[in-house]
Amino acid sequence: MIAEPPRDLIGQYGITLAEFDRILSLLRREPNELELALFGAMWSEHCCYKSSRRLLGALPKEAPQVLVRAGEENAGVVDVGEGWAIAMKIESHNHPSAVEPYQGAATGVGGIVRDVFTMGARPIALLNSLRFGFPDEPRSRYLLARVVAGIGDYGNCLGIPTVGGEVFFHDSYSGNPLVNAMCVGLLRHEDLVRSAASGEGNVLLLLGNATGRDGIHGATFASANLDGDGLDRRPNVQVGSPFLEKLLIEACLELLEKDLLVGLQDLGAAGLTSSSVEAASRAGSGVELEVTAVSRSETHMTPLEIMLSESQERMLAVVEPDRVPEVRAVLERWGLRSDAIGRVIAEPLVRVCEEGQVRAEVPVAALTDGAPAYDWPAMPGPLAGPASLPTDPLELLAHPNICSKRWVYRQYDQTVQASTVATADADAALVLLPGGRRAIALCTDGNARGDDPYLAGALAVCEAARNVSCTGARPWALTNCLNFGSPERPQGSWELRRAIHGLAAAAQALDIPVISGNVSLYNEASEGGARGAAAVAVTAVLPTPVVGMLGLLDDVERRGSIAFKAAADLVVLLGPATGPLDLGLEARVQKACRDAIGRGLLNSAHDCSDGGLLVTLAESCILGSVGATLEPELDYLDESPSRIVVSLSPERLPELRAMATGLPLTILGRVGGDRLRIPRVCDLSVEEMRDAWQHGLERFL
Amino acid sequence: MSDFMARVYVTPRPSVRDPEGSTIMEGLHQLGFSGVQMVRAGRYFEIMLQAGDSHQAEQTVDLMCRKLLANPVVEQYRFDLQLEATSE
Amino acid sequence: MKFGIVVFPGTNCERDTAAAVEIAGGQAELVWHADDSPLQRFDGLILPGGFAHGDALRAGAIARFSAVMPRVMELAQTGRPVVGICNGFQVLVECGLLPGALLRNDSLQFRAEWVHCRVEVSAPPLTEGIPVGTLLYMPVAHGMGNYCEDERSPLGGETLVALRYCDANGDAAAAANPNGSAGNIAGIVRGNVFGLMPHPERAVSPLLGSVDGLALFKSLTRSLVAA
To answer: Most buried one in A593, C40, C130, C162, CB count within 10 A?
Structure first.
């Protein structure tokens, strides 16, 4: 053991003085440097959610369809009927993307895909949620272009369609872009795999990439502010190989299909440390690791570097000793390396050895259950006003936050796997389930707002559920990614707390379980001055809770779409003309829309959000290549929630009214012609609207 | 046997359009390098190899280029060789 | 009739392609790249899309040296159909079964979108029974689809342009070209060997957006029945 107490090192491993005292009382001795590093990694916000864990208890996690609850495993799993299940999760890769956008975004996709196939699921869809500074800044454009290329190149190579996502621009993201990636996997119930390292004497096999120095301290890095010197941290960022990941997916799914594994766990933040500790913790067992058995891509790596390396495309498999040759035969066929790096032990310890000499020995529970949890003081601070959009209709349609994101999504393969239902620019993507009659609906939605974090949380859920409902699908489960500034500032803590309350209240009201998630804090940049010097100003991102929604559609022939279809159809607003968020009303509006689609009443349905009714109507016209004439004098730019614009044949109106009993319902006008005519608002041809909307983003790029 | 370092340069043949090179040239122009007349983007390889002598090394690298490193339909190549070490 | 679908490490469209063959009435069996046994049991071969060997160096450059490739060449010589889709097309030009090269898209970006293609040749193996001038609506998804002719082996002799990108009116306009390929070339054919960048296996049902790809697979299985 290293004798010298490393008190002067605690800051380097992201440990506070109070946390160091906690370690002393848990261990009843001084930790050595390697042990301190293990604590630093496991006690980082990224791994233990110390600043958010207590707050997350408010989220509704239970529902009959839930097979694996949030926090239990690498991804949540829900039943979707006929013996099938869906595994899904969304995760941030904000800090790495700020430093090296291409690799940061690419490895973000790689990480979330591993979280999903670890469960025994074949990845069938990717989504994302991206936020950048306004694109008139060159650096924001550079970040956008490189992040999109990184996401595309990685997912495209894996052969997983990227079916949905969102891109939003706001100055608060200039120094802190947000890159959230979501993966959805399909599996049979009986193929569900756990990640537990169980069975004393079982072998731990490390599969895939060799271990190098990339990403060392990534877990603590992800939880630290980006200071003025953020650009100099480039060596920390991991480099991804989608080709290797593709081989790992196929090899692991084959190993699971042949029932050769006891458990499977991916290596993400904090690398071998967190994967072995979590696997041991889930089994109530311990692990003994021999670091010299790990294949390395660099020379002279220390045990500490091997334990903390975040080299990508690695998996940890738990295998019974007599099955190892069979496992290796499968891996060799795929050209993959495997190292027997340790074994499961009965004592609940993590023991790290170097050539048989013990270098660290820590109780698993000290690293996991022993992690601190904080209730930071919370206080509202100065609130940002709501984001303003142009009022001129063509300028509005061309605004980067409103216009078509075709420039982005045409770099993503959306059709591989031949299961994506053709609906470009839909409110939510539809992906066919096996059999081809049923589908899942998928979308991501965030509603960043600095004026009310509670609404940001609630609206993210409501809008995602409304988008899914506009396809006719029932919202079935959600995953969430909470992107906030430092919780150590009272305002940051207050924003996080309020947003989680809003998210919880909406998920409860709409009866949607939260099955997985991720928290990304410290998304703020201090301007001016090097690290250590007094910061001039702190710019935190807007409170940005992002929701990934899964919906279930029983009959894909009965699906909703945005485009207006037939001339003379009535255009009807389902929901109030204006008003504050009422979660009960929101739930009823969404249900009425789904029921009407299910009965085949509607020819189109489109959610009303940013840019109000004007944008909703214009998009239905553009995508349907048909005009519409509206009558009532309303505020067409009002962005009130709980509203869906539908169109239907006039003779079906009584049925819709019967279905929407007790709900506000306004007849807006009729589909027809080649212009969108709204009294006192606009009279524009569909083609000039299309031109503004379709090329809005390209004008900046 | 001797150790050689081969530095291989693969570039688009002059008759083949090179959109990457053109884009880089535009970028350089935008940055104020107005004197830039032409950019051709290619690939560069560093290959350590063992061979009996420099003639054999040259033949081997040439074969590598023709078989794999360059696509003769659209690319040309050149390389230089450097003796790194000689062993028994 | 039975098709072999050749799978390289990194291939990712093999399942979709096998499913499309089956919808068109054929049988499909996956063939692993390291397998050097004869392929005579197959009536035809398809090299599907993906990123063989991660597109290292150039798309298809490493795959062409796989153990299976001499067997692919052997089967091509028997006159049985050999079809390369997207990455498979890239492998076919790298190994010389088809002339030319597929360069990086002129946008320097990956392109994934639905395109129209005009049928230029009505002949086996893929377009028999589909009249010249027919428009097919299919997705493309590639980073290296920019076809470049080999000056030493120009098109028009035994190699013909089979498909051209065009707009919805059938006009092979520059704006309808997703990758900058010469003459809007989307696919070429030399006898029984056919290569194309669009993905017909993703256009096999109205739900997916088109059934035009299925027409190509039906032509393929039909040409075998006739032979």
So the answer is: A593
Domains of chain B, by residue range, sit at 2-83
Residue A566, judged by CB atoms within 10 A of its CB (0-12, 13-18, 19+), counts as middle
Cβ neighbours for A317, distance < 8 A, ≥ 6 positions apart: A204, A205, A207, A252, A255, A261, A263, A264, A265, A327, A338
DSSP one-letter code for A534:
P
**Quick check: is A695 catalytic?**
no
How far apart (Å, rounded) are the C-alpha atoms in residues C113 and C107?
14
User: Rounded to whole angstroms, how far apart are CA atoms A107 and A181?
Assistant: 10
Question: C86: phi > 0 → left, psi -120 to 50 → alpha, else beta; which?
Answer: left
Numbered residues of chain A with Cβ closer than 8 Å to any chain C Cβ: 149, 152-153, 156-159, 241-244, 246-247, 333-335, 409-422, 432, 436, 556
Distance between CA B44 and CA B35 in Å, rounded? 25
CATH 3.40.50.880 correct for C2-226: yes
**Could you tell me whether strands A122-132 and A263-266 are parallel, antiparallel, or unpaired per DSSP bridges?**
unpaired
- Please, how many CA atoms are within 13 Å of residue A186, restricted to the half-sphere of its CB? 17
pLDDT digit string, tens, across residues B14-54: 888 888 898 899 889 988 999 999 999 999 999 999 999 99
What type of residue sits at position A437? R
Complex ipTM > 0.95: yes
Q: Is the pLDDT of residue A535 over 60?
A: no
For chain C, domain boundaries: 2-226
Phi/psi for B4 (5° steps) reads -120, 145
Q: Which pair of tokens denotes residue C170?
A: 């059938």
C-chain residues near B17 (CB < 8 A): 103, 106, 148, 180
Collapsing DSSP states into helix, strand and coil, what is residue A543?
coil
Which pLDDT band, with edges at 50, 70 and 90, does A230 fall under? very low
Q: Is C194 on the interface with A (CB under 8 A)?
A: no
State the first-to-last Cα distance of chain B, in angstroms, to the nearest integer. 7
- The band of A531, judged by pLDDT with boundaries at 50, 70 and 90, is very low
Query: What secondary structure letter does DSSP report for A569?
Result: P
Fold of B2-83: Mth169; Chain: A , (3.30.1280)
Is residue C203 a contact partner of residue C213, using CB atoms and an 8 Å limit? yes
Could you identify the residue written with the tokens 């049928």?
Answer: C119
Which residues on neighbouring strands pair with residue A548, listed in sequence order? A444, A479
> What letter represents residue C124's amino acid?
P
Q: What kind and span of H or E run contains B54?
A: helix B54-64
Pick A559 or A426 by higher pLDDT: A559
Q: How far is B75 from chain C (nearest CA, A)?
A: 10
C63 to chain B: nearest residue by CA? B68
Which residues of chain A have a CB within 8 Å of the CB of C16? 416-418
Residues A416, C50: Cα–Cα separation, whole Å: 9
- Which residues of chain A have a CB within 8 Å of the CB of C208? 415, 418-422
Active site residue C201: yes
Q: Where are the alpha helices (DSSP H) in A639-699?
A: 653-659, 686-694
Residue among A642, A279, C94, C164 at smallest CA distance from B74: C94
For C:135-174, CB contacts with A below 8 A are 139, 141, 143
Pick out chain C residues at pLDDT < 70.
Answer: 225-227
Would you give the distance in Å from CA B38 to the centre of its chain? Answer: 18
A289-315 pLDDT per residue, tens: 999 999 999 888 999 999 999 999 999
What whole-number percentage of chain A has pLDDT above 70? 94
Contact A413, C110 (CB under 8 A): yes
Do residues C44 and C220 make contact, with C-beta atoms less than 8 angstroms apart?
yes
In this prediction, residue A527 has a pLDDT band, given cuts at 50, 70 and 90, of: low
pLDDT (mean) for A401-414: 97
pLDDT digits (tens, 9 = 90+) for C145-186: 999 999 888 898 899 999 999 999 999 999 999 999 999 999
